[in-house]
TrEMBL record:
Organism, as annotated: [Bacillus] enclensis
UniProt region (Disordered), positions on chain: 137-197
Gene3D superfamilies: lambda repressor-like DNA-binding domains
Swiss-Prot/TrEMBL keywords: Membrane, Transmembrane, Transmembrane helix
Protein name, entry field: Protein RodZ, contains Xre-like HTH and DUF4115 domains
Residue stretches of biased makeup (Basic and acidic residues): 150-193
Pfam family membership, one: HTH_25
Molecular function GO labels: DNA binding
Matches recorded under InterPro entries: Bact_Cytoskel_RodZ, Cro/C1-type_HTH, Lambda_DNA-bd_dom_sf, RodZ-like_C
Transmembrane parts of this sequence: 111-128
Domain Cytoskeleton protein RodZ-like C-terminal: 218-281
């Protein structure tokens, strides 16, 4: 038993209190009262209870707790423990639950108000959409009403017949005009004609018609000697052409082109972009080609 325990026990006995009596007065379990007198503080729930029980013990037996704590401070735990009593924990837990419930109750009315406002807005929107649809339907119905036509505005039969006659005459004139234009177009689209009209020995004469130009091109497929003369028997070219060589001549202002070919097989002749067909087979190496030009104006 500690010195503090002896002091407390003596004070209890001086009051003629048994441990059972002290238990009824302090509401402290008897085993804890015995532990205080014997200095067995480890059996207590915590240091908080040690100091609290000693204080109640002192007050019950007529001692000053502050004086006892000061005199026996080395025996009594120096500070309160941070542990929270179970009873206090339960109280706080209940308070927390109550606070949470209170907050939930505060939020519920706000939620109900928000739901009500949303419902009102939806109802207004549906009403507006229905109204707009009805107006559109009425507008379509009004647009489909028959339009009255005044008979005075209609042309009489005589004027209609007159217009039909005028239109018919106009149509005939248009057809006639279209026919004339078609004939003119046919004449314009008429292709040039290049035909062999005479062959004497190695000389072939061609006639060029139905065109307003006479462009001549000589293209060599191999070595070939050529000579080119105009209607005045003037030499425009005379010499060798080699493979892929080309010579161009414009006889549009002339009436005839005279060609002397040293190797017909190696010489292609193009008139206005179209190939001239040899009347004499090209096996005849040396050939003379005469092209007589008859422009469209002179035909």
């Amino acid at each position: 038993m500690t010195e503090l325990g002896k002091r407390l026990k003596e004070a209890r006995e001086a009051k003629d209190f048994s441990l059972d009596d002290l238990q009824r007065v302090t509401k402290i379990q008897k085993r804890y009262l015995i532990g205080i007198e014997e200095g067995s503080y480890d059996m207590m729930p915590g240091k908080f209870y040690v100091r609290a029980f000693i204080k109640q013990y002192c007050e019950a037996v007529g001692l000053q707790p502050e004086v006892i704590f000061e005199e026996y401070k080395e025996e009594i735990p120096a500070a309160y423990d941070d542990e929270i009593p179970v009873s206090l924990s339960r109280v706080q837990t209940r308070k927390g639950v109550s606070a949470s419930s209170s907050k939930a109750l505060d939020v519920i009315p706000k939620i109900l108000i928000a739901v009500f406002v949303i419902a009102v807005l939806v109802a207004v929107w549906v009403f507006v959409q229905t109204k707009v649809a009805d107006n559109a339907s009425n507008a379509d119905t009004s647009n489909k009403e028959p339009v009255a036509v005044d008979q005075k505005d209609l042309p009489d039969e005589e004027s209609a017949d007159g217009k039909d006659t005028e239109q018919k005459d106009s149509g005939e004139k248009d057809d006639s005009k279209a026919g004339e234009e078609k004939d003119n177009n046919d004449e314009e689209k008429k292709e040039q004609s290049l035909e062999a009209v005479k062959t004497e020995g190695t000389v072939t004469t061609y006639e060029l018609k139905d065109t307003d130009q006479f462009n001549l091109e000589l293209a060599a497929k191999g070595d070939a000697w050529v000579a080119v003369y105009n209607s005045k028997d003037e030499v425009l070219f005379q010499g060798m052409l080699y493979k892929d060589d080309k010579k161009d001549f414009d006889f549009t202002e002339d009436q005839q082109a005279y060609l002397v070919l040293g190797n017909a097989a190696n010489t292609d002749i193009n008139v206005n972009g179209k190939a001239l067909e040899y009347k004499i087979p090209t096996e005849t190496v040396r050939q003379d080609i005469v092209i007589q030009y008859k422009p469209v104006e002179s035909q």
